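User: Sequence recovery, please. Input:
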């Protein structure tokens, strides 16, 4: 892991000592995300030529199942040993790794119903299980983003990630030209938008878009909320974009904004922005 990622984790640990168990899991994810073995599983190109479809939509993946299973087991083990009672319930969820295709596909496609069902069957806390399962495809997704970042169409104008179809984790308003970029909390991807727009419903009318500035933190961290769909995006003014591996940390470090948005009656939509519908090919090696 790079120095800035390590430093970011340590900063968060100091500010939020109660997060230590969760930060242990995040650290494991960030370490694996830097592992280039995942590059080998990135498909040659996106599965569809439809202009509104993310690059991963409709692809057939030939993953090395044993690699994915070992990673899922390692992740779940780290989680249940991390020391909170909810996470301890994940000890039984280690079995989910035996049906790794189902787990990987459900996590990749953000199928929260399927993940919830799996958690209930295994006797694990559904919330903790979903939070940890969401990390299973992250190293693969980062590899896709590294490989495909240059293939993202400049004309991409959707609210969801052009690589993996997730809704943005936050927006960055960069540099003196104040260009706006959405960032993806799963693959670390980024896409530029050319005006103030609600990613969820496409609203661009400034009268319908409100900026909520939290009490502390000044005006460089704001909540952009949409009065039509009641969705919100955190927005950070910054000199340059964060490295892909730091998006997860930036998102975590700004949870106070999520809390403030919820208190004002705004929320982020559940589930994916675009349903990926991937196929996992047989590749038992
Ligand atoms: Zn993404
Ligand atoms: Zn909206």
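Assistant: Recovered sequence (285 residues):
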């Amino acid at each position: 892991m790079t120095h800035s990622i390590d430093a970011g984790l340590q900063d968060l640990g100091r500010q939020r000592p109660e997060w230590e168990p969760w930060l242990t899991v995040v650290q494991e994810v960030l370490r694996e995300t830097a592992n280039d073995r995942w590059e080998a599983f990135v498909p040659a190109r996106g599965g569809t030529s439809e202009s509104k479809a993310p690059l991963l939509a409709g692809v057939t993946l030939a993953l090395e199942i044993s690699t994915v299973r070992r990673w899922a087991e390692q992740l779940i083990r780290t989680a249940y040993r991390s020391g909170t009672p909810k996470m301890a319930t994940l000890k039984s969820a280690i079995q989910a790794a035996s049906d790794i295709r189902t787990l990987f596909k459900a996590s990749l496609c953000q199928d929260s119903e399927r993940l919830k069902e799996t958690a209930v069957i295994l006797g694990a806390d559904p919330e903790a299980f979903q939070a940890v399962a969401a990390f299973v495809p992250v190293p693969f997704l980062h590899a896709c983003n590294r490989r495909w970042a240059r293939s993202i169409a400049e004309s991409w104008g959707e609210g969801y990630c052009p690589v993996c179809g997730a809704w943005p984790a936050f927006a960055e308003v960069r540099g003196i030209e104040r260009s706006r970029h959405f960032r993806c909390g799963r693959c670390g991807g980024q896409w530029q938008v050319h005006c103030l727009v609600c990613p969820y419903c496409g609203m661009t009318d400034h009268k319908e878009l409100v900026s909520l500035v939290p009490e502390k933190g000044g005006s460089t961290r704001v909540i952009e909320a949409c009065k039509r769909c009641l969705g919100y995006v955190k927005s950070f003014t910054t000199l340059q974009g964060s490295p892909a591996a730091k998006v997860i940390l930036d998102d975590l470090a700004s949870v106070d904004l999520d809390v403030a948005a919820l208190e004002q009656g705004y929320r982020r939509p559940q589930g994916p922005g675009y349903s990926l519908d991937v196929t996992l090919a047989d590749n038992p090696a």
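The two ends are 28 Å apart (CA to CA).
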